[in-house]
Structure formats: structure tokens, C-alpha cells
Design a protein that fits this description.
Length: 70
């Protein structure tokens, strides 16, 4: 899905929250023709910061109500 979405000029940030494990991938478009930067966070102690949106969240909070996700 990201492969298709990343061709959209207006897309600057793409966040993938894995449903079956505690892991988040955050892709951010780099200036010019430099492509995309990937940042990953995993485990309930992990944290993801999305600077362009001015937000951050701990994975423990994000997955707090997920049942059976380790």
C-alpha cells in the first residue's frame, strides 16, 4: 500500500501501525529528490514522534487496549 501512496506528491507522512505486534513504522518524505526516511519503534517501551504533526505517542499507550498483541 505504501508503495502506491508514496507516489502522491501531497503525501508527506505515512504511519503504519502493525495490528499483530507492537511495532510502528513512520515514513517521512525528505526534501528534494532524497526519497523517504524510515523511523521504527517497537515494544511497549517504544515511542514514535511525528514532528510534522507535532505529536508523539508511546507504544504502550497506543497498544494499551490491544488484546493478544506482544
Amino acid at each position: 500500500k505504501f508503495e502506491m501512496c508514496r507516489t502522491m506528491e501531497s503525501l508527506r507522512e505515512y504511519v503504519l501501525v502493525h495490528p499483530d505486534r507492537v511495532k510502528v513504522e513512520h515514513y517521512s518524505r525528505q526534501a528534494g529528490e532524497q526519497g523517504w526516511l524510515l523511523r521504527e519503534a517497537a515494544g511497549r517501551a517504544g515511542r514514535i514522534e511525528i514532528g510534522a504533526w507535532g505529536v508523539g505517542i508511546g507504544l504502550g499507550d497506543l497498544y494499551a487496549t490491544a488484546i493478544g498483541v506482544e
